[in-house]
């Protein structure tokens, strides 16, 4: 555990013993995905999950990437892993029990394991291979949110995440090739929506690693906003060394250095996401009525 004094004060305001949520409900499910590597998916998943915990939510972060960066970034030692996201896919592991506590109050992680690198091949012949995650996650659980950190690929693991979740957050690095491959991603999301998961939506596009000293960042950001309009979050994540240092300490940047511009941006993002959530919920209720 992080020493209490090193936890930002907001966490100390959480109700006592509020770890997993006391009431069971079907959680809101979000995937963080982009088949492009190194665009900030894991950094976003970890820090968004932490920021949601700071406002009292209980969150399960599922590391669905065989690289296991979300697990190590949250200080999970490989040797300490009992249940993993592989067990969720293949062994009917119960996500309520399999989530392990992290140093962040309210944040649980379902780590990745080496077995996950073979999962793609195992899934090909598995029964109901696209629905594996959906069937285990769409049940009453002690979490308000489940966030899935996807691998940098549109493989069957990512497909499982898209079939399971309500909405996808797409981080885009502010660099020249940012939009490359994006139509493939949006078409895949559309296809999953048509075929398996009619309520699936893009929650938002997140501009990451924005460097205000570099004109290219501003140009890319303009292009992305022209292309995606309102879908792009107003919050932009700056390039910030604290965000890249934090994982080596097994801590989210929000805890490692809460005052850093990177941590600040992710807190702002969580606020924007929660406001957008209200709109999504209202739209869904209207659809059901
Ligand atoms: P992969 O596709 O390999 O899973 P990813 O999309 O999950 O990568 P991250 O691991 O979050 O991307 O980030 C890639 C690298 O960039 C990491 O070393 C991370 O610490 C660093 N990084 C991410 N966001 C920022 C940022 N805003 N400023 C500086 N460094 C960042
Ligand atoms: Mg990653």
Give a summary of the structure in a few sentences:
This protein is of the alpha/beta class. The chain has 13 helices and eight strands.
What would you note in describing this structure?
- The protein starts with 8 loop residues before the first helix and ends with a helix.
- The mean pLDDT is 92.
- The protein is globular and about 50 Å long.
- The protein is built from 13 helices and 8 strands.
- With 289 residues, it is α/β, with parallel strands linked by helices.
- 42% of the residues lie in helices and 16% in strands.
- The chain has an 8-stranded mixed β-sheet, sandwiched between helices.
- The protein binds adenosine-5'-triphosphate and magnesium ion.
Low-confidence stretches: none
Shape: globular
| Helix fraction by DSSP (H/I, runs of at least 4) | 40-55%
DSSP strand content = 15-25%
Q: How are the strands ordered across the major sheet?
A: 3-4-2-5-1-6-7-8
Q: What is the count of helical runs?
A: 13
Task: Give me the count of strands.
Answer: 8
Q: Which whole number gives the mean pLDDT? A: 92
Q: Could you tell me which ligands this complex binds, including any ions or cofactors?
A: adenosine-5'-triphosphate, magnesium ion
How far is it from the N-terminal to the C-terminal residue, by CA? 45 Å
Largest sheet: 8 strands, mixed
Instruction: Please write the string of helix (H) and strand (E) elements.
Output: HEHEHHHEEHHEHEHEHEHHH
Radius of gyration: 18 Å
Structural class of the secondary elements?
alpha/beta
């Amino acid at each position: 555990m992080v020493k209490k004094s090193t936890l930002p004060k907001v966490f100390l305001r959480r109700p006592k013993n509020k770890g997993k949520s006391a009431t069971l409900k079907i959680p809101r499910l979000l995937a963080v995905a982009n088949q492009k590597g190194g665009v900030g998916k894991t950094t976003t998943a970890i820090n968004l999950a932490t920021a949601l915990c700071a406002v009292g939510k209980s969150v399960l972060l599922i590391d669905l990437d065989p690289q296991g960066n979300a697990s190590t970034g949250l200080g999970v030692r490989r040797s300490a892993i009992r249940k993993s996201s592989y067990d969720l896919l293949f062994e009917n592991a119960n996500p309520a029990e399999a989530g392990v506590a992290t140093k962040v109050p309210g944040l649980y992680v379902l780590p990745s394991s080496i077995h996950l690198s073979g999962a793609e091949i195992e899934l090909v012949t598995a029964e109901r291979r696209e629905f594996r995650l959906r069937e285990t996650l769409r049940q009453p659980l002690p979490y308000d949110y489940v966030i899935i950190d996807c691998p940098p690929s549109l493989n069957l693991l990512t497909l499982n995440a898209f079939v399971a979740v309500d909405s996808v957050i797409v981080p885009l690095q502010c660099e020249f090739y940012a939009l490359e491959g994006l139509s493939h991603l949006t078409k895949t999301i559309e296809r999953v929506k048509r075929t398996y998961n009619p309520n699936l939506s893009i929650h938002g596009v997140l501009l990451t690693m924005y460097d205000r000293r570099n004109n290219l960042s501003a140009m890319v950001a303009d292009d992305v906003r022209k292309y995606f309009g309102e879908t792009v979050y107003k919050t932009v994540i700056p390039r910030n060394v604290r965000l890249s240092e934090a994982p080596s300490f097994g801590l989210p940047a929000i805890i490692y250095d809460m005052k850093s511009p990177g941590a600040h941006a992710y807190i702002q993002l969580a606020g924007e996401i929660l406001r957008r959530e209200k709109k999504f919920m209202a739209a869904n209720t209207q659809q059901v009525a």
